[in-house]
Design a protein that fits this description.
3 domains, Alpha-Beta Plaits, 10 helices, eight-stranded antiparallel β-sheet, 28% helix, alpha+beta, 18 strands, 373 residues, five-stranded antiparallel β-sheet
């Protein structure tokens, strides 16, 4: 077994080179808060948590460079003190979440549809490949395009191309104004209203439609978050409430609710039974209401649909997603397991070929299993 976590990139490099020489698989891990995203993998644990710290933060340049093992909460605290944030709102899923693990997982929070995802904020990386070589891609400014596509490809790669050692990320100022509105709308009406608002100059930032099973009568509710200039938010509140009959929610309550949405601690995210898994259905925003076999929550202005269903419904769920122009993945396996059911849709042949070539280039010995960020 490996000893204590590394405290500098040189030790990470040494461990990877030793593993490559012995053909020993490695199981990369940051805080381990996203281990549920993949099935347990064999291999020796290689933790990045010992390589932590903020290397540089240039508030005026809107860029921060950090070591991959830095706790995500620590980085967010430093940015908040400067009136800045990670606009893509990466979920933590636990107190040990690291910056490297968050980017490797490639997940984004409620604002994804309007601000972009993790890869849109990666300016540069230092990566240790399967040969133990320290490689640098990208830089600290958006116009530095050398190797930029490789930097972006690492977001969501789950460590299968190598160990992310350092990251340069674009950050954004916190918006001057924010407000959350709630509308009593059925799913079809909510989607139609979101499509109408999407074509108007409104400061939409996030949306969430859900049936509130914790309230009497189980009302169907659409929540919309606005962010932007004070005048723009105020004007949008007046216009949207007039058009759809909604009301504003207390800001403190709204912030807590959006954080719970990001961290999947809302009541919706409690499994109906141990046999139910949480399915993530990604479709175009304009997709209609989908015939999904369980409780549903809709985010990202319609582009992300969550559904609780047993794994026996996998074929039907994936067929429904494909018919709508999207795909489905088993985001959280049921407590009873998901034997024989792939977590992700099979990649198209052309995409699979590109992925295979990338892995062969960066990890020729096949050392790295998917990261548990």
């Amino acid at each position: 077994m490996l000893s204590s976590p590394p405290d500098h990139p040189g030790e990470l490099i040494e461990r990877i080179r030793a593993a490559a020489a012995d053909r020993t698989p490695l199981r990369l891990q940051g805080g381990g808060t996203k281990a549920f995203l993949a099935e347990p993998a064999p291999g020796e644990l290689l933790s990045t948590t010992g390589y932590a710290g903020i290397i540089s933060h240039e508030p005026s340049e809107l860029v921060v460079t950090v070591k991959a093992g830095t706790p995500l909460a620590e980085l967010e605290s430093v940015l908040a003190s400067a009136g800045q944030s990670l606009a893509f709102e990466p979920p933590h899923f636990g107190p040990g979440s690291t910056v490297g693990g968050a980017v490797a997982a490639g997940l984004a929070g409620p604002a994804r549809a309007t601000v972009g995802g993790a890869r849109d904020y990666v300016l540069g990386v230092r990566l240790i490949n399967g040969k133990g070589e320290l490689l640098t891609f990208g830089g600290q400014v958006m116009k530095n395009v050398a190797g930029y596509d490789v930097s972006r490809a690492l977001a969501g790669s789950r460590g299968q191309l190598g160990v992310i050692a350092e990251l340069s990320l674009k950050v954004l100022p916190v918006a001057p104004a924010e407000a959350t509105l709630v509308f009593p709308l059925a799913q079809h009406d909510a989607l139609e209203q979101l499509h109408r608002w999407g074509g108007q100059p409104l400061p939409l930032n996030a949306s969430c439609w859900v049936r509130d099973d914790t309230a009497p009568g189980a009302p169907e509710l659409l929540f919309v978050r606005l962010r932007g200039a004070v005048a723009a938010v105020d004007a949008a509140i007046a216009r949207m409430t007039r058009e759809a009959g909604g009301q504003r929610i207390d800001d403190a309550r709204a912030r807590a609710d959006w954080a719970a949405c990001r961290e999947q601690t809302l009541p919706f995210f409690s499994a109906p039974s141990p046999a139910h898994g949480l399915w993530r259905v990604s479709v175009p925003q304009t997709a209609p209401v989908l015939d999904l076999p369980g409780p549903v929550m809709v985010e990202w202005q319609g582009a992300q649909r969550w559904c609780w269903a047993p794994v026996e419904q996998a074929r039907a769920i994936r067929a429904t997603a494909r018919a709508a122009g999207g795909h489905a993945s088993l985001f959280r396996a049921p407590a009873t397991g998901a034997a024989g059911v792939p977590r992700e849709d099979a990649a198209e042949p052309a995409v699979a070929a590109i992925q295979a070539r990338l892995r062969a280039e960066f990890d020729p010995a096949g050392l790295f299993a998917p990261v548990a960020g």
